[in-house]
Amino acid sequence: MGSRDKVSTILASQFAYFQQFTFVIKHKAGVLNKVADALCLRQSLLSTLHTSVPGFSVLPDMYPTDSFFGKFWIDAVEGRCSDYFVLEGFLFRGIQLCIPECSLGLQIIKEFHSEGHVGRDRTLQLVTHSYFWPSLRRDVERYVLHCGIFQASKGHASNLHSHGLILALIFVLVLPRTQRGHDSIMVVVDRFSKMAHFLACRKMTDAAQVRSLFFQEIYKLYGLPQSIVSDRDSDFLSHFWRGQYQNMGFNRFPPGMYNKLKPRKIGPLDILEKISGNAYPLRLPPDMNTADIFNVKHLSSFHGDDDVTNSGSNFSSPGAT
């Protein structure tokens, strides 16, 4: 290294450090190298692990006095029950650990649901794989129903077999010209009710004009559809959808990273009054630039904290056992 003209700063500092020592570098075969390394210490590695979960240690003391598992505990200890058995002081139902009436059931549901704020069925599947208590299904439904993040991020379950969700857009061209210059007809058909709407237009009508005509005549009847089938090309539909969302004042594909838990709803909001049975004016935040009257199909009921005490998970006092 000393014969090199240029070396890096790190090599130069290391070379200056080693110059204060006198040593000779010799090769030594691996068989003769008896210095202990990580591979030589494999027999010293841990072969067993012991875990301790806070809260589970009190379960063996709660089984005999539990209103549901008490009788199964006695039968399992005496060997008279085939469905339940005792292992290291814990009561099992098959491969499921039995949880007596305490707040631990709520904590278990919370741990599984908070991993991704999945729906009721998926949360129930995760919990029932390893745990069991009599009110498990009801407790999972109640917890998922009252989860604030899940309520805000879950979309509406759309029924495609309902009015106005799927529309067909067809153009009948080259007809006799009217006094107003119209020579074509735009036909909008509701795929569910088969109701057709005929709108006069021109052969050279572009996507912007079609969008304006659709917004004036069709949107007030059905709202914004989920899908439109048209005999025009994909570029026409792309311009149509882009302009339609611009007219409504929001971006269909907002910038930013996609997150399935990103809120799709806002709230809770106060309902000011009820209009004709299916419309409600709401008290909106001041930064929302939209009308404050919404149809009932665009609203979701808000579920706050649950005060029900008759539960195996003891929702009213999560910290109690």
Automatic annotation (TrEMBL):
One MF annotation (Gene Ontology) recorded for this entry: nucleic acid binding
One Pfam family from the record: Integrase_H2C2
Signal sequence region: none
Gene3D superfamilies associated with the record: 1.10.340.70, Ribonuclease H-like superfamily/Ribonuclease H
Domain Integrase zinc-binding: start-end pairs: 103-154
SUPFAM superfamilies: Ribonuclease H-like
Domain Tf2-1-like SH3-like: 256-303
Name of protein: Uncharacterized protein LOC108808163
Species of origin: Raphanus sativus (Radish)
Lineage: Eukaryota, Viridiplantae, Streptophyta, Embryophyta, Tracheophyta
Gene: LOC108808163
